[in-house]
Amino acid sequence: MSPRALDYESLNENVKKVQYAVRGELYLRASELQKEGKKIIFTNVGNPHALGQRPLTFPRQVVALCQAPFLLDDPNVGLIFPADAIARAKHYLALTTGGLGAYSDSRGLPGVRKEVADFIGRRDGYPSDPELIFLTDGASKGVMQMLNAIIRGGQDGILVPVPQYPLYSAAISLFGGSLVPYFLEETANWGLDINNLRESVAQARSKGITVRAMVIINPGNPTGQCLSEANLKEILWFCYRENLVLLGDEVYQQNIYQDERPFLSARKVLLDLGLPISKELQLVSFHTVSKGYWGECGQRGGYFEMINIPPRTVDEIYKVASISLSPNVPAQIFLGLMVNPPKPGDISYEQFVRESKGIIESLRRRAHIMTDGFNSCRNVICNFTEGAMYSFPQIRLPPRAIEAAKRAGKVPDVFYCLKLLEATGISTVPGSGFGQKEGVFHLRTTILPAEEEMPEIMASFKKFNDEFMEQYEDHRGYSRM
Amino acid sequence: MASLTLDAINTKVLKCEYAVRGEIVTLAQQLQQDLQANPGSHPFDEILYCNIGNPQSLGQQPITFFREVLALCDHPSILARSETEGLFSLNCAFSYETKDEYGPAEFVFESIGWSTSFSSCIDAIKRAQQILDQIPGKATGAYSHSQGIKGLRDTIAAGIEARDKFPADPNDIFLTDGASPAVHMMMQLLIGSEKDGIMCPIPQYPLYSASIALHGGTLVPYYLDEATGWGLEISELRKQLQAAKSWGINVRALVVINPGNPTGQVLAEGNQREIVDFCKEEGLVLLADEVYQENVYVADKKFHSFKKISRSMGYGEEDISIVSFQSVSKGYHGECGKRGGYMEVTGFRPEIREQIYKVASVNLCSNISGQILASLVMCPPKVGDDSYGSYSAEKDAILSSLARRAKTLEDALNSLEGVKCNKTEGAMYLFPRIHLPQKAIKAAEAAKTAPDAFYCRLLLNATGIVVVPGSGFGQPKLRPYGRLHKIRWEKPTFIKLNLS
Question: How far is residue A347's CA from residue A309's CA, in Å, rounded to a whole number?
Fold first, then answer.
């Protein structure tokens, strides 16, 4: 047999370097155990509907009608679908050129992009241009497109928070760039210290890296912190002075669980700063239907908005988008509905508000239940989840546990999380998948399990953790060796 | 300075080209806006987009059964309601009287252009329930397994087996947002540098050239022979492979598009066997773009998947690596906007499979509705199913219409001065050769445009017809082509152009 083209050695090196822990070792082990019949609670990914959250009714009604437009002509359609859903379905179908089954403009349906622009305008108080809004099959695709455009080679660095959502590290590996980490301060509620940023950039430059862009995730993933206006201003000025493109991952903008720091878009703060920065700082903002109180992960709907990106660069990005022809049309309708939901007076308005508020208020309660639950465990400290969908407790592993992990050939937090999984069925993602300071360990879980089940889950966790600590702690005092 | 200006972006992005949505289309969109603002400002009433295989944008109707199932899956809470049965039987004058769901004979009704049967609607409800049972928690809004929902992959594997009469493994299937992302994934794996070459047919669908450029690889062309109906000669493959090797290119894979795009040829079995042997001998991954497998218009040719051909030659997983791409966008279903498709990956070692899975997992999963549709396309209503009658009527109508239009347009084009068009055996395109007079070619040069782009622009300005210049697909120089999309009309109209 002749040599084969796709042997492991000859695979693209960049692909081999990629890691994505969210669906990595822990998830695969959990899936194996599930097949063997064990009850698994998947808290490895922000996937609300998989944990029992119901879809909002109105958007599903509208999209179902768009899928089967022949229903709209039936005199009995009003028996199952409210009049406003019927009207909306007609509205969105009219925006397409042939219904859900036709490729749209590669940037997305112009009519939906206009609705997104209107939403952004209302949210920020400054009008937005639909021509600079591109719809994508999920926000991740948009992030990938932008990073692919920015990264020219290994000498190009992208500033990424640590801890970060590992899409960023994976994409940077895939495109052959350099990840330039900046550490968030756990003791300051995962705050961003501008000095950390400056240090990171200086270090990178001393290694010959050209730092091109900075990623912020606001609200944060996995850390949940909401950036203050002051912080956002600092970041914007920093990017302006250092000539960086700011990539604002704002997919959790609807998930806010405290009142001190409501969501502020990077765009709004930028435009508030006025000239010259407002016309010069290059910013790309990302949003999605997967998170918020919508949780429609399976639709793969998202968008990015470009601010102060030169027209010819926009053309190049359009060109790349056109190779994939168009984003999926049903998700574009979900996006339109998200940015243009039922209004007061609409038949479906009350139901929509009731469902949405129900979800958000429950998430807020669950954020507290989890944080408090983790903080009641031995050797565990947990910052409050100010936003997003995750809890990222720090697990202070005793030295003997770390040794045991080494003997088992596992990274310490992976070791802990595997034991947690085997004992309780709770499938988490070890903190090493997101990045953390040397010798400090975390795990990420979601706050998405059903509220009724939370107390039991936290009790189960506490039992496992406290027994684990009992087993591995040296009662005669910590050995620092 | 490192801001996001044109000189500071990834050069691979700058290098890649995709003519299907290129310059001519941009011009067409401008003309369309002109027409809206000023009706009568051009010598035509509408823009006819013949540049893309986008059937439903040109009036082709979706398959009713598929849409019924998808609607029910999108809004499963209506499945529990008795009114739902009434709604999905909108076209029926009779009410359902017996409880026996296999009971009454088919009632067929005409309504708004569709004929559908009452029992097809019950079938849709059953199928939707079956599908929802395969989805954990019936949650169509949740991220699925990164290869796609297991139950749907089982269905697709069964469909592949039924088609090929050889076993198919659901674990070999990766459901993707259309076939294009799957192609990108494979290019990503195969290409590490410009030393990695991928063999592509010329003319080709420019996704391949664009993807190879984007990933920094080298396209190794092999030329299809227009004189023999766009035939693929193994000698040509060997010649190009040798040439590439002599330039230090490490050739990794061979792309074959069957039925062909833009050329429409359906490969003969013997040809396919030669190709399989070639890939096996040379250790090339066979990337088989089979998205037009349902679009075959000639009685003397049939679609055979490359996997089937390999297995029938006695070759197994150890012998040859094949990736087969399929899509919901083409065929008779034409569901482009849904972005549904898959690749079936066979003959790869487990450590490679892990890497493919890893890359797929970074994007989490493809859209669920598209996954469901892929399973419907690969496992549609069968003979004996209550829904079969109306489903096959719709399918046959679309396919026979496509076949008629292929012939009509081919004949019409061949009747034009300076135009020669090969027969379209399959896919959705015509690729006529336009013999441009010297004066035209000089005029094109003066306008700094490729001759075929020059012709296509004039065509657009005179008639509103949007086609893709052949240079967008690659071709030997000085033989301009235009790709016409045949889905549009039953009765084509042409305006003769004076190129003086």
Answer: 41
CA distance A92 to chain B (A): 14
* Among the listed residues B262, B321, B323, B261, the one whose alpha carbon sits nearest the alpha carbon of residue B288: B323
Query: Which of these, B179, B181, B176, lies nearest to B147 by C-alpha position?
Result: B176
Is the CB of residue B450 less than 8 Å from the CB of residue B468?
A: no
Question: Which tokens hold the place of B168?
Answer: 């198919």
Judge: B137–A295 Cβ closer than 8 Å, yes or no: no
Contact predicate B378/B162, CB 8 Å = no
User: Amino acid identity, residue A200?
Assistant: S
Using alpha carbons, list the distances in angstroms from residue B434 to A266, B23, B446.
53, 20, 19
Taken in order B467, B470, B472, B473, the sign of the CA dihedral is: positive
Query: What is the per-residue burial (b if ≥16 Cβ within 10 Å, else e) of A439-466?
Result: eebbbbbbbbbeeeebeebbebbbebbe
Give residue A219's Cα distance to chain centre: 9
Whether residue B437 has a cis bond before it, omega within 30° of 0:
no
Tokens of B478: 């000085």
How far apart CA B18 and CA B32 sit, in angstroms, is: 21
User: In this complex, do A23 and B355 lie within 8 Å of one another by their Cβ atoms?
Assistant: no
Q: Is residue A343 packed enough to be buried (19+ CB in 10 Å), middle (13-18) or exposed (0-12)?
A: exposed
Report the SS3 class of residue A213: strand
Query: Coil, helix or strand for B419?
Result: strand
Q: Are A420 and A33 in contact (CB under 8 A)?
A: no
For residue B257, the surrounding DSSP H or E stretch is: strand B250-257
What the block records as the tokens of B317 is 């997983």
Distance (Å) of CA A18 to CA A14, A26, A173, A249, B151: 7, 16, 6, 20, 28
Distance CA B348, CA B285 (A): 9
Residue in the structure block whose two tokens are 């079956």: B130
Contact A297 B142 (CB under 8 A): yes
- Quote the CA–CA distance of B99 and A256 in Å, as a whole number: 51
For residue range B239-258, what is the model confidence (pLDDT) as tens digits? 999 999 999 999 999 999 99
| Cβ B329 vs Cβ B179: under 8 Å | yes
Structural tokens at position A39: 């009850």
Task: Dig out the tokens for A280 from the structure.
Answer: 């010069």
Provide the residue type at B227 as one letter. A
**Rama region for A300: left / alpha / beta (φ>0; ψ in -120 to 50; rest):** left
Provide Rg for chain A, Cα atoms.
23
Indicate yes or no: CB of B6 within 8 angstroms of CB of A312: yes
Q: What is the pTM of this model?
A: 0.92
Is the ipTM here above 0.90? yes
Per-residue pLDDT, A4: 65
First to last CA, chain B: 50
Percent of chain A with pLDDT strictly greater than 70: 98
Q: Is the peptide bond before A127 cis (omega within 30 degrees of 0)?
A: no
pLDDT of residue A148: 93
Which chain B residues contact residue A57 at CB under 8 A? 77
In degrees, rounded to 5, the angle at the alpha carbon of residue B481 between the alpha carbons of residues B475 and B487 is: 120
Tell me the torsion sign for CA atoms A53, A57, A58, A63. Answer: positive
Mean pLDDT for the stretch of residues B434-458: 90
For residue A398, pLDDT beyond 50 = yes
Q: Extract the runs of DSSP E, i.e. beta strands, from A204-341.
A: 210-217, 245-249, 283-288, 302-307
Measured from the Cβ of residue B221, the count of other Cβ atoms closer than 10 Å reads 19
For B318, which of A1, A171, A210 is closest by C-beta distance?
A1
The Cβ of residue A210 has, within 10 Å, a number of other Cβ atoms equal to: 16
Give bridge partners of residue A339 from the DSSP assignment.
none
Are the beta carbons of A158 and B12 closer than 8 angstroms? Answer: no
Quickly tell me which residue has 């972005």 as its tokens: B339
Nearest to B90 among A71, A97, A327 (CB): A71
- Nearest Cα to A170, choosing from A304, A17, A34, A67? A17
**Using CA atoms, how far apart are residues A25 and A23, in angstroms rounded to an integer?**
7
